[in-house]
Amino acid sequence: MPILYYIYLCLTLFSIGVVGVLTRRNAIIVFMCIELMLNAVNLLLVAFSKMYHGAAYLNSPTTTIGIDAQIFVFFIMVVAAAEVSVGLAIIVMMYRNTHSVDINFLNRLKN
Amino acid sequence: MKIIIAFIVLWPLAGFLFNGLGRNIWSKKTVAYKATGYIVASFIFSILAFLNVQTNGAITVHYFDFINTANFKIPFDLKVDALSSLFLLVITGVGSLIHLYSTAYMKEEEAPHYARYFAYLNLFVFSMLLLVLGDNFVIMFIGWEGVGLCSYLLIGYWFTNNTFNYAAKKAFIMNRIGDLGFLLAIFWMIAKLGTISYSEVLTAESLAKLSTTDITAITMLLFVGAMGKSAQIPLFTWLPDAMAGPTPVSALIHAATMVTAGIYMITRANILFSASEFTGHVIAIVGISTALLAATIAIKQNDIKKVLAYSTVSQLGYMFLGLGVGAYSGAVFHVITHAFFKALLFLGAGSVIHAMHHEQDIRKMGGLKSKLPITHITFLIGCIAIAGVPPFSGFFSKDEILAAAFAKNPIYWVLGVIGAAMTAFYMFRLYATTFLGQFRGTHDQEHHLHESPFAMTLPLILLAVASAIAGAIGVPELMGGHHWLSHQLVSIVGEPHEATLSHQTEWMLMGISVTIAVIALTIAITIYKKKADGEPQTVLGKFLYNKWHIDELYNNAIVEPLNKFAGFLKEVIEKSVIDGAVNGTGKLVQYSARKMRLVQSGQVGYYILFMVLGIVLMLVLWFNDISILRFLIQLTNKS
After folding, report:
1. Does residue A110 belong to any structural domain of this protein?
2. Residue B409: pLDDT band by 50, 70, 90 thresholds?
3. Does residue A111 belong to any structural domain of this protein?
């Protein structure tokens, strides 16, 4: 399957994430959009990794070319999981204080 | 010899440091003895150096490298040859007498100022000796600047008087204008020849390397330097104003030594000057014009020192006429005789001023003959010498210059004789008004009239003797002499020109100039024996009395426009343009900061939006070519 399809998919997912972050006010949806962007990048990494590794594998079955990107993906997943726990905790605290998850209320921090 | 030559220069420097640093410590007596003693020591060493030149010829001694770079070197060398040893004797000899004279003349000054005066005077002698002893143009330039500085310091010696300060500044600035010419000439020589040592620049080989334009430019620039230092048109107006300084200073600096630096420099570089016909003409014309202009002004002045000052300018003009027509040894001869009789006249004037309690207006003098006998006799000898009456010294030197001028162009000679007649006239006008007739001052002044102390009359007597007999060093062959001086200077200026004039012509020229001078001085004595000049009545009289309005001309043509321009820069350029730019920058930053801070609204969404826009912009800029597109196409083709 052409790599371009993966790239288009990733671009679409990433753009949806960006637009979601920019336009939505609900903190949980913003949060989900951030996850969407992260996973779009993950997907791209895996796709490229597979492409390069597959090409090298035909010549030498023991090659490790291209597989390091997949290790990155695991790292990103771990970091994302940690981030989710922190982010959700913040949102919970926010809800307790303001009874809302609207991020525009966050500007109360100013002054 | 190396040590002796070094000490000729170092004695006055030691005196300067001693008096300058210890001005609050030493008594006036110590200061006077030390200051005079150092110059006398320098004089004795100069005699030794002179005798050495007579027996062993010229020597150059190397002390250290002043500037030393890979391909250019300025050594600190001193050179004693026929020319510089003569100047050494004049500077230290006349300098010693003037120091001696000053010890009495300045004794009313407070101790620190007394020491300050002698420190400046010693520094001056030091600079002047450096000027004549240096073996390259840079060392000469150091001395050249040094004498300018000392002149400034001494003219403004009585610094509480603002007029004197202005006179000092005027002298310094005029000198600086000339110095710029000298400096450019040095740069030109370095650029074209890569050296500034006399022994390398002033040779036939280096002349061959220079084009005619180069030689003309270098000599003209050197001459501009000489114009400033030696008070020639158009830079002469500082010299009469320099009379603001104490009278012995006028005698030493503004008559006998510093102003002759220009003549020394041109004589030193005579090989270059002889090679440029054009510069020679310019020098001769400037010289004779200065001589005549200053002489006409001197006729109408009433300040005893101003008359002498203009007479100095006029005599310097004669020397430049001599240089311009190639009579270098004649010019040097006139420098030497002029040093004697002009120092004598200034010191005599100082003695008169001293007796008159700082009265300088000759209209208020008169009849001083019997009250100041020694001053009177010596002053008279000085007047006769400068008027050119044989057998006094001025006759021989002036005649030599005039004869050379006649050989070059008879018009120079005619103008020179007219100038000489005016010289005789104004000098005897000065003499008769001051010493003959009735006393015209106040009763109080008359009561206090006194002959000056011995320390002042001794220099007068010695200088009078020198003025009377100094002509002996240059008696022309015509009169059975063998012109010792020009033989001395053969190694510097070459063989004296073959006599182009027949003996009859020379006798006739001499006879005419002497007769005219004697007639002029007789007329002057007859007129001014009885009465002094009143206020000038005729248009011409007023014109001369006001010094041809040259100061006003310079003021209106140069100073005022410059002041206006400076005012324009201050009021318009400074206030609107420069201040505007500086304040504008500040205002712009403040304004933009006020507007920009509104962007920081606290809305997180906007921050992120700007961030995304920024990233997109960066990507566009980064990949503004089609490389990303090509990359995508490549991928498509591959799959």
Report:
1. no
2. confident
3. no
Pair (B628, B480) in one structural domain: no
The answer to whether residue A19 is domain-embedded is: yes
Q: Do A1 and B639 touch (CB under 8 A)?
A: yes
Same domain? For B363 and B508 the reply is yes
B72 burial (CB, 10 Å; 0-12 / 13-18 / 19+) is exposed
| Residue among B629, B635, B636, B637 with most chain A CBs within 10 A, to mutate | B635
User: B639: which chain A residues are within 8 Å (Cβ-Cβ)?
Assistant: 1-4
- Which residues of chain A are modeled with pLDDT < 50? 111
Q: Which of B135, B166, B184 is the last residue of a domain?
A: B135
A-chain CB neighbours of B635 within 8 Å are 2-4, 7
**Residue A86: domain span:** 3-104
- Please report where in the chains the tokens 């990733």 appear, as a residue: A10
- Is B578 inside a domain boundary? yes
In a domain, residue B173? The reply is no
* pLDDT value of residue B423: 92
Q: Is A58 on the interface with B (CB under 8 A)?
A: no
A28 and chain B: CB distance < 8 Å anywhere?
Answer: no
Q: Are B332 and B489 in contact (CB under 8 A)?
A: yes
8 Å CB contact of B608 and A3: no
Q: Does residue B360 sit in the same domain as residue B443? A: yes
Residues B417 and B377 in one domain: yes
Q: What is the pLDDT of residues B322-342, one digit of tens each?
A: 999 988 888 999 999 999 999
- Report the pLDDT value the prediction gives residue B622, as an integer from 0 to 100: 75
- Of B598, B601, B604, which to mutate for an interface test with A (greatest number of A Cβ within 10 Å)? B604
My answer on whether B510 and B593 are in the same domain is: no
Tell me if residue B497 falls in helix, strand or coil.
Answer: coil
- Cα B603 from chain centroid? 79
- Residue B583 domain flag: yes
**Could you tell me if B267 and B328 are in contact, meaning their C-beta atoms sit under 8 angstroms apart?**
yes
Residue B577 shares a structural domain with residue B637: no
**Is the predicted pLDDT of residue B623 greater than 80, yes or no?**
no
Would the CA dihedral through B143, B460, B320, B88 be positive or negative? negative
The residue-averaged pLDDT of B358-383 equals 88
pLDDT confidence of B604, banded at 50, 70, 90?
Answer: confident
Number of domains in chain B: 4
**Residue B314 CB: number of other CB atoms within 10 A?**
26
Entry pTM? 0.78
**Can you tell me the mean pLDDT for B52-65?**
89
- The answer to whether residue B144 scores a pLDDT higher than 60 is yes
- From chain A, the residues in CB contact with B603 under 8 A are 104, 107
**B584 and B451, same domain (yes or no):** no
Question: What is the CATH number for A16?
Answer: 1.10.287.3510
Same domain, B500 and B378: yes
Torsion angle of C-alpha atoms B239, B548, B281, B318, degrees rounded to 10: -50
Domain contains B253: no
Which of B135, B157, B173 marks a domain boundary? Answer: B135
- Bridge partner list, B136: B197
Does A107 lie at the interface with B, CB-CB under 8 angstroms?
yes
Residues of B with CB under 8 A from a CB of A: 601-605, 608-609, 612, 632, 635-636, 638-639
Q: Would you say residue A35 lies in a domain?
A: yes
Q: What is the DSSP string of B373-422?
A: HHHHHHHHHHHHHHHT-TTSHHHHHHHHHHHHHHHH-HHHHHHHHHHHHH
Number of domains comprising chain A? 1
Residues of B within 8 A of A52 (CB-CB) are none
B413-465 pLDDT per residue, tens: 999 999 999 999 999 999 998 888 888 878 887 788 888 888 889 999 999 99
Full domain range(s) for residue B619: 602-639
* Nearest neighbour of B636 by CB, restricted to A2, A18, A103: A2
B635:A106 CB<8 A = no
Chain A closest-CA separation from residue B587 CA (Å) = 27
Q: CA B520, CA A72: separation in Å to the nearest integer?
A: 116
